[in-house]
Amino acid sequence: MRAMQIVEFAKPLKLNNYATPAPKGSEVLIKILSAGVCHSDLHIWEGFFDLGMGQKLDVSTRGMKLPFTLGHEIAGEVAAIGSDVKDVRVGQRFVVFPWIGCGTCAFCNDGDELLCPTPRTLGTRRDGGYADHVIVPHPRYLVDHGNTPIDLACTYACSGLTAYSAIRRTQKIKNMKKLLIIGAGGVGLAGLEVARAIHDGEIWVADIDEAKLKIAREHGAHRTFNPKDPEIAAKIAADGGADSAIDFVGARPPTSSPSRPCGAAARW
Ligand SMILES: [Zn+2]
Ligand SMILES: [Zn+2]
Fold first, then answer.
1. Phi and psi (nearest 5°) for 4?
2. Whether residue 116 is found in the same domain as residue 192
3. Any idea what DSSP says for residue 251?
4. CATH, residue 50
């Protein structure tokens, strides 16, 4: 199998060739057809997460060994199955749920693998999707994506889940009518689509890029705001304000580099 790997942090990825692994027991070998690039991948490639205020999280302290294959937004088809696998068959297509726990701790036993202190996340802890094959430890991490195009479906493993989790949380607020989405980039627009599906009130979108606001309006935003407008706070307040706001930007303008908010950063 081929894998584009980090061999040295912040240096170009290198194409390495390995024997394609054979799945054992409950494992499933996935032939990768699509893999998303998440902003967290850039941080991991650099070797650290910038936590702000001059603090950095060094990824090499979390057990990552080089060479390493990035990619936690993975979709593909089953190429081979281990001897214990009964539920899937070769050729079926799935999105891979990458947030895999150790399988033995109290969190994992409770079904909260996301909270596992020693996770086996594909693409951040274990080799991931920038390759033509990946081993998934169990078919329960394979999600049917229906008719959703596979290039889009793969992004739901992180970008989509991040947006969905945030929007779902706002729905617990009593009398939540006006939802403000801050940032109309990839994750923000995914949030807009999710909000249209599960939020029955108004959806407002704010972004400093008028072109993105236009896209947001075309995709169902009821109102849009540009934070460059000095009157923005007054305009939002004049309508009684938003009942809930989600920051999908996670960066402070204008000098710092833009950052795609990512579940991986929080879960890493
Ligand atoms: Zn665990
Ligand atoms: Zn991510």
1. -90, 115
2. no
3. S
4. 3.90.180.10
pTM: 0.85
Tokens at 130, concatenated: 């920038």
Place of tokens 């999600």: 143
Rounded to the nearest whole angstrom, what is the distance from the C-alpha of residue 75 to the centroid of ligand 2? 14
Spacing, Cα 172 to ligand 2 middle (Å) = 25
Residue 188: which CATH number? 3.40.50.720
- Residue 122 lies in domain: 2-157
Q: At what angle do helices 186-198 and 210-218 cross, to 10 degrees?
A: 30
pLDDT by residue for the chain (268 residues), tens only, comes to: 999 999 999 999 999 999 999 999 999 999 999 999 998 899 899 998 877 778 888 887 777 789 999 999 999 999 999 999 998 999 999 999 999 999 999 999 999 998 999 999 999 999 999 999 999 999 999 999 999 999 999 999 999 999 999 999 998 888 889 999 999 998 999 999 999 999 999 999 999 999 999 999 999 999 999 999 999 989 888 878 999 999 998 777 655 454 555 555 555 5
Does one domain contain both 116 and 166? no
Spacing, Cα 80 to ligand 1 middle (Å): 26
Q: Final residue of a domain: which of 157, 181, 210?
A: 157
Question: Ion ligand 1 — residues with CB under 5 Å?
Answer: 101-102, 105, 108, 116
> How many angstroms separate the alpha carbon of residue 207 from the centre of ligand 2?
21
